[in-house]
Design a protein that fits this description.
alpha/beta, 2 domains, 5-stranded parallel sheet, globular
Length: about 200
């Protein structure tokens, strides 16, 4: 029986680094962001239907995310239309991943907006990555083109970290790589001690 662990956390909390730690221990990781990128890339399953709904977002056979963001900003009802197209495709991609790993004792589903989403997948447990707000801000502001205003806008759309931690089965502190690695190892030992 495969244990399905959801991995989530707000921007700048270290989720991608933590997901890599699970992967390094031999546990398959499905990445929701990577799935969407693949769906929007040339030949991706979302290109045709998204381009039909948002023609200005089509560039060189792919969906241009910046152009798509502009279309969403111009039309309050557009996000629901986009989600109606993309969410079923993402769910299919996730199910394909799970079908490929039915013999794995543990799979990790890396889903940034797990708690904010309207249709969460069936999970056996959830781990939330978390760090001090100052460390989080420093990490995000170090990214190219990110300002304090951008960070504030992103955080306003995400569930507060304290609420995510309250909903979690495990909290992975990401103040240091060693601390995060130790927490990941403990979770793996609890879930899949013989993996």
């Amino acid at each position: 029986m495969t244990y399905r662990l959801g991995l989530t956390g707000s921007i700048g909390m270290g989720k991608s680094t933590t997901a890599a730690m699970f992967r390094d221990l031999g546990h398959p990781v499905w990445d929701a962001d990577a799935a969407v990128h693949g769906l929007y890339a040339p030949g991706g399953a979302a290109v045709g239907p998204v381009a039909a709904a948002f023609p200005d977002a089509l560039r060189d056979g792919a969906i241009d995310r910046a152009a798509l963001r502009q279309a969403l900003a111009a039309d309050p009802a557009a996000l629901a239309r986009l989600e109606g197209i993309v969410h079923p495709l993402v769910a299919r991609d996730r199910q394909d991943f799970l079908d490929r790993h039915v013999d794995a004792p543990l799979v990790v589903l890396d889903i940034p907006l797990l708690f904010e989403g309207t249709n969460p997948p069936d999970l056996d447990g959830v781990a939330v990555v978390s760090t001090d707000p100052q460390i989080q801000a420093a990490r995000v502001l170090a990214r190219p083109g990110v300002t304090r205003d951008t960070l504030a806008m992103i955080l306003a759309r995400q569930m507060p970290d304290a609420e995510k931690r309250a909903r979690a089965d495990w909290i992975i502190p990401t103040d240091s790589l060693d601390g995060a690695r130790a927490a990941v190892a403990r979770i793996v030992q609890e879930i899949a001690p013989h993996a």
